[in-house]
Specification:
Blueprint (H helix, E strand, L loop, with lengths): L11 H9 L8 H11 L4 E5 L2 E4 H17 L7 E4 L7 H11 L2 E4 L6 H11 L3 E5 L5 H14 L5 E5 L34 E6 L9 E5 H14 L7 E4 L6 H5 L2 H7 L3 E4 L5 H10 L4 E4 L1 H14 L9 E4 L6 H9 L4 E7 L5 E3 L6 H6 L3 E2 L5 E5 L15 E6 L14 H4 L6 E9 L5 E6 L4 E3 L2 E3 L1 H8 L5 E11 L3 E10 L8 H10 L10 E4 L13 H7 L11
Helix pairs in contact: 2-3, 2-4, 3-4, 7-9
Length: 556
C-alpha cells in the first residue's frame, strides 16, 4: 500500500534545516540496527526466559523473521498490526519490520477485537501478529477468525503463545515464520523519510488515532533521549510497561538502550514480586513506570522493610502526573534515582535531569530534551492568540524535529489538533518555570466549571492523595442544572481504612488552603479506580461508576 498520502510531511525548508543540523541523518531503523549489532556484537542485547541473547544472536533472529516476512509476500509500505506482550519475540519481529520497510501498527497487548479491527480497517493492513491471552486463548482464536472474515485485506495472521503451539496451525504459528533459511532478506529498507511505524494517541477512551512516525524523526527522538538519560553499554533496562507504547520503546526505552549497547529484559506482568525478582536476577539498573505502578512498588517496599530492591535504580515515571509526595518517597524511602518524563507519542518529550535540584525532580515534569523543540503556552480559550504571561497556566503547543505535523492520512480532526503554523495542540494545561521545566496542571476538557469558576481536578486529587485514608482519587464533573457542574470525589480507600465522609474530605482540603469553590460537592467510594491499558486514569470509565447511587448528598 502506498504511503504517499499517509502522513503530513514537514515543510521542505524545515526538513532541510533538520538535516543540516544533523538531527535527521537519512538513516532507517533497519540500517542503524545492523550498525548496533556489528558494534556491540558479543554484548548482551536481550534477557528473556532465563537466557541472554547477544547482539549477534538478535541480528540472526531479525534476519530470520525478515526472511519470513519476505517469503509471505510482505513488502515495503505494507501495514502489519503488531499485538504482542513483552515476553515474546516482539523486539525481533519489530526490527524485522523495520528491515523490510513493513510498517508496524503498535497495538497494546490489552487491545481486543474492537481496537484491532479499527486499526486494520484504517490501514488496510495485510498482516496481524497477535498472541494467545493466557485466560481466553481458545476464544481469541475464534475472535481472530471473525476479524479475518471482516477484513479482506488481512491476508496473513501469525500467533504467538508462551505456553503451547498445539492450538495454532503451523502456518500461523509465529516462530515458524523464522524457518526460511534458504533465502536472504537483502539490504535493509533505506527511505528515511518514509513512515517507520504507527503509534497510538494517548486518549483514555475510544479508538486511538494513528500517529505516523518516520525513520528520520523517530531516530532523532531515540538519540536525543539516550543522550539526555546518559545511557551506555552498562545500562540494563527492565521493560515493565508494554513495549509497543511509545514511552518504553523510545524515551529512551528499548531502542535507546539498544542504540547504546545496553541490555533489555522484557517483563509482561510487572507485579512487585516479579519486578523485584527481575531487578535482582538481571542486575537491572533502569526501568520505567506509570505513577500507579511506581506507587504499588513503593507500597510493597514500605511493607517489606529492610533494603529496598529499587535502591540505586534509575526509575523513570511518566504517562500521567506523579504526585510530589510519592516522588519524594520514591527517592527517600525506596532509594530510586527518579526521573520524571512528560511526553506524547506525537513527539515532544520532556525530562528532568539527574543533576537537577531535588525540588525540580519531585515537583516538575521536566523540560524539553532538545534546544530545537519549540514550545508555547497559550490561553486555552484563544488557541490562536498570544502566549500567556510567564508562569501562568495555559495549553501547551509544540513543534520540532520529532513532533508530527498531522495524524495518519490527515484525518478530519487535524485542524483541531494542529495550528496553521504547524504547532501540535497537546491539550495539556501546563505552566513553565524560569528554568524551562514544565508543571502539568491538567487537561483541556477535564476542568469542572462550577458557577463560572474552573476547578482543575488534578490539583484537588493531588492534595487528597495525601490523606491517610485515600489510596487513590479522581475528581469528576457531573451535570447540574443549577451550578453547571458539581464535583464528585471518587475515592479508592486504603485497605482497612475507616470510611471517609464528605465533611471530613472538605475539611481536609480547607485545612490545606483550598478555596471553597474547589471542594467536592459529593463523595463516591469505589473498590478500585479504572485505568487504561498503560495505567492512566480512565476518566470516562470513572464516570460510569457514578451511574450507581452516590454515597452522599450534595453539599452546597
Amino acid at each position: 500500500m502506498s504511503q504517499a498520502l499517509d502522513h503530513v510531511p514537514w515543510p521542505q525548508e524545515l526538513a532541510q534545516r533538520y538535516r543540516d543540523l544533523g538531527l535527521w541523518r537519512g538513516e532507517t531503523l533497519g540500517q542503524v540496527f545492523l550498525g548496533w549489532a556489528e558494534r556491540f556484537a558479543e554484548r548482551t542485547a536481550l534477557i528473556e526466559g532465563g537466557r541472554e541473547l547477544t547482539y549477534s544472536d538478535l541480528a540472526q533472529e531479525v534476519e530470520r523473521y525478515s526472511q519470513g516476512l519476505m517469503a509471505r509476500g510482505l513488502v515495503s509500505g505494507d501495514y502489519l498490526v503488531l499485538h504482542l506482550p513483552n515476553e515474546s519475540p516482539i523486539i525481533a519481529v519489530l526490527l524485522a519490520c523495520f528491515h523490510r520497510g513493513v510498517v508496524p501498527v503498535l497495538a497494546l497487548p490489552g487491545h481486543r477485537q474492537r481496537e484491532l479491527s479499527a486499526f486494520i480497517g484504517q490501514t488496510g493492513a495485510r498482516a496481524l501478529v497477535t498472541h494467545l491471552p493466557r485466560q481466553d486463548g481458545p476464544k481469541w482464536l475464534q475472535t481472530i477468525a471473525r476479524i479475518e472474515q471482516a477484513h479482506p485485506s488481512l491476508e496473513q495472521v501469525f500467533v504467538w503463545s508462551g505456553v503451547s503451539s498445539s492450538e495454532v496451525t503451523p502456518h500461523a504459528w509465529l516462530p515458524n515464520l523464522r524457518q526460511h533459511s534458504g533465502m536472504r532478506a537483502g539490504p535493509p529498507f533505506s527511505n528515511a523519510a518514509a513512515v517507520a511505524l504507527l503509534q497510538l494517541s494517548g486518549g483514555s477512551t475510544g479508538i486511538p488515532k494513528l500517529i505516523p512516525r518516520t525513520h528520520d524523526d523517530y531516530l532523532c527522538s531515540v538519540r536525543l533521549s539516550a543522550q539526555v538519560c546518559k545511557l551506555s553499554h552498562e545500562t540494563r533496562y527492565l521493560a515493565a510497561l508494554p513495549i509497543t507504547h511509545n514511552f518504553p520503546l523510545s524515551s529512551p526505552g528499548v531502542l535507546g538502550v539498544l542504540a547504546s549497547g545496553g541490555a533489555v529484559h522484557g517483563l509482561d506482568e510487572p507485579t512487585p514480586s516479579r519486578t523485584f525478582a527481575a531487578l535482582a536476577s538481571s542486575c537491572i539498573n533502569m526501568t520505567a513506570a506509570v505513577p500507579s505502578l511506581a506507587q504499588a512498588w513503593l507500597e510493597v517496599v514500605r511493607r517489606r522493610g529492610g533494603p529496598s530492591p529499587l535502591a540505586g535504580v534509575r526509575l523513570q515515571v511518566g504517562g500521567a502526573k506523579l504526585d510530589p509526595i510519592v516522588a519524594r518517597a520514591l527517592g527517600c524511602e525506596a532509594g530510586c534515582l527518579l526521573q520524571q518524563v512528560f511526553g506524547m507519542a506525537e513527539g515532544l518529550v520532556n525530562y528532568t535531569r539527574f543533576d537537577d535540584p531535588p525540588e525540580l525532580i519531585e515537583t516538575t515534569q521536566g523540560r524539553p530534551m532538545s534546544d530545537h523543540d519549540e514550545v508555547r503556552i497559550v490561553d486555552p480559550l484563544r488557541p490562536s492568540g498570544p502566549v500567556v504571561a510567564p508562569g501562568d497556566v495555559g495549553e501547551l503547543q509544540t513543534r520540532g524535529p520529532y513532533t508530527i505535523r498531522g495524524y495518519f492520512k490527515g484525518i478530519e480532526s487535524d485542524p483541531q489538533r494542529f495550528t496553521a503554523d504547524g504547532f501540535y495542540r497537546t491539550g495539556d494545561l501546563v505552566r513553565q518555570l524560569p528554568s524551562g521545566h514544565l508543571v502539568v496542571e491538567g487537561r483541556l476538557g477535564h476542568h469542572i466549571l462550577r458557577n463560572g469558576e474552573k476547578v482543575a481536578p488534578e490539583e484537588v486529587e493531588g492534595a487528597l492523595r495525601a490523606h491517610p485514608s485515600v489510596a487513590d482519587v479522581a475528581l469528576i464533573g457531573v451535570h447540574d442544572p443549577t451550578v453547571g457542574e458539581r464535583a464528585v470525589a471518587v475515592v479508592q480507600p486504603e485497605p482497612g481504612a475507616v470510611q471517609l465522609g464528605l465533611r471530613e474530605v472538605r475539611a481536609f482540603l480547607r485545612a490545606a488552603g483550598f478555596a471553597e469553590f474547589k471542594l467536592p460537592d459529593r463523595l463516591h467510594i469505589v473498590s478500585s479506580l479504572p485505568r487504561t491499558a498503560v495505567g492512566k486514569l480512565d476518566r470516562i470509565a470513572v464516570k460510569h461508576c457514578l451511574s450507581q447511587p452516590l454515597l452522599s448528598p450534595p453539599e452546597v
